[in-house]
Write a structure and sequence with these properties.
Elements: E1 8-12, H1 35-47, E2 52-55, H2 68-71, H3 82-91, E3 97-103, H4 109-122, E4 127-132, H5 151-169, E5 197-198, E6 203-204, E7 219-222, H6 227-236, E8 239-242, H7 247-263, E9 272-281, H8 285-297, H9 301-312, H10 335-348, H11 352-360, E10 366-370, H12 372-384, E11 390-394, H13 400-415, H14 428-432, H15 440-454
Parallel strand pairs: 1-2, 1-11, 2-3, 3-4, 4-7, 7-8, 8-9, 9-10, 9-11
Antiparallel strand pairs: 5-6
Length: about 450
């Protein structure tokens, strides 16, 4: 009998997604560089049987240098490099997946492929890659570039980048390392392959200097929701991390991406849609909303406005805070993030101030405030009504918020049969119910052998 479909959950462990949460008395202000915090939140998540912890990253600060008053209020200016952090967490966990962010616009595919393969070996099959194209135009100055690559070009590069990475992961077939001491043969040279890629953006010879990852390919998450992002994700990603404010928007996105995946020849059930959800729990709905208002009160206008500008890609300083959001020009940054903010403002008639308060507490993701039942009902509705296969969870009260969710909401989801009580496998792919990809060279060899026999 087929197991019933269940919710997938990942913990967003990047500190301070709620921009001013560090100011709250229940939040550890210096957690961004405290390895004990990351170990603790990983343990809470693994004990609750989450699929993965999820780490966002960018190569530059969130706000222009022209706004130093906002930069001075931000805790996210000093954070760990993701691969280093995930390598440490792999040694302090056993089952939970480890997904971290690496961009394709300023990195090189050989190094990303090797780093992810190494993490997959270190963690015994728990690595995941959140692929981003880097929206912030300031990033170019950190890599010796005069201009930021245009949106469409960034996505063409990303598609080629991912193809190269997957090819490099297949450099050795699964049984290439024979380790024959008597004959003195370490690996079978016939099962080692050179990529010899020549493309629009990259020239990569290969092979990769590490055995094929335990998962075959580490899990690939893709975070873009523009037209280009949807196409790339539907064709190539295992997980799509997205942001929606309403159930209807989530359903539209879910339906569209699943259809694109089917059109690309993929099984839509193997493209998992995980929108972000910022959760504030309370013993009652009233207590939860009191906590929410406490967090909202900590958002300084400088931080709120610059957060909104970062999302919209537009300077809003010339507009009254208590006036409407103006019509925005097309941006070379994140088109999907801008659209989420615009849709929210127009749908609810929000002023700029009201809008920045909404997005600064969750960085544009869906916010769920309430008791155990209220939160579980919301997650279940999105899951059962075609808006999500699971969620990447934010908790403004870090670490407390995740502990409350694990203590109160997870048992309720389990009672409803919506979430696992134990891990059934050991790798991230197994947690997600995703097949292990075949090695492209082994598949080609098998196909050639079949044709030869048939001839």
């Amino acid at each position: 009998m087929t197991n019933p479909r269940q919710i997938h959950l990942a913990t967003f462990i990047y500190p301070f997604a709620q921009r001013s949460s560090w100011r709250h008395p229940d939040v550890q202000a210096d957690m961004a560089l405290d390895i004990d915090y990351y170990r603790a939140v990983t343990k809470v998540s693994e004990d609750a049987k989450f699929d993965a912890v999820f780490l966002a990253d960018s190569y530059s600060g969130d706000y222009p240098i022209a706004h130093p008053e906002a930069r001075a209020r931000l805790p996210g200016v000093s954070v760990f490099e993701p691969l280093s952090l995930m390598s440490v967490l792999s040694a302090h966990s056993e089952k939970i997946g480890l997904i971290y962010t690496a961009g394709t616009t300023y990195e090189e595919p050989y190094m990303v492929a090797r780093a992810l393969a190494s993490l997959d070996h270190l963690s015994k099959g728990r690595a995941g890659w959140n692929l981003v194209t880097t929206k912030n135009p300031k990033t170019s100055a950190n890599f010796g570039k005069d201009e930021h690559m245009l949106h469409g070009e960034r996505y063409r590069r990303a598609a080629e980048f991912l193809d190269v990475v997957k090819g490099l992961w297949d450099s050795f077939e699964d049984d290439a390392f024979v380790l024959d001491k008597e004959a003195g043969i370490y690996f079978d040279i016939e099962k080692s392959h050179t990529l010899d890629h020549q493309g629009e953006f990259f020239s990569v010879a290969g092979p990769l200097r590490i055995a094929r990852p335990p998962q075959g390919h580490p899990v690939v998450s893709q975070a873009g929701s523009s037209e280009s992002g949807r196409d790339l994700g539907a064709r190539t990603a295992d997980i799509i991390f997205t942001a929606h404010q309403t159930l209807e928007d989530g359903q539209d996105f879910y339906r569209d991406v699943k259809q694109r995946a089917a059109a690309a020849g993929r099984d839509p059930s193997e493209v998992l849609i995980l929108p972000g959800a910022s959760v504030i729990w309370g013993e009652t709905d009233e207590i939860a909303w009191q906590r929410h208002e406490e967090m909202q009160a900590l958002i300084h206008p400088d931080v709120g406005l610059r957060t909104l500008e970062s999302i919209c890609g537009v300077d809003l300083s010339g507009y009254p805070l208590d006036g409407p959001l103006p019509d925005l020009p097309e941006t070379n940054e994140s088109k999907s993030q801008q659209q989420v903010a615009v849709n929210l403002a127009r749908r609810e008639g929000l002023t700029i101030r009201q809008l920045y308060l909404r997005v600064a507490n969750s960085y544009r993701h869906h916010v769920i405030v309430g008791s155990t039942r209220t939160i579980a009902d919301d997650l279940e509705q999105w899951f059962t009504e075609g808006a999500a296969d699971g969620f990447v969870l934010f908790a403004p009260y870090m670490l407390k918020g995740f502990t409350e969710f694990a203590t109160h909401v997870v048992p309720e989801l389990q009672r409803r049969g919506l979430f696992r009580k134990e891990y059934e496998g050991s790798t991230l792919r197994e947690h997600l119910g995703l097949a292990r990809p075949a090695n492209r060279y082994a598949t080609q060899a098998a196909s050639t052998a079949r044709l030869a026999r048939a001839g």
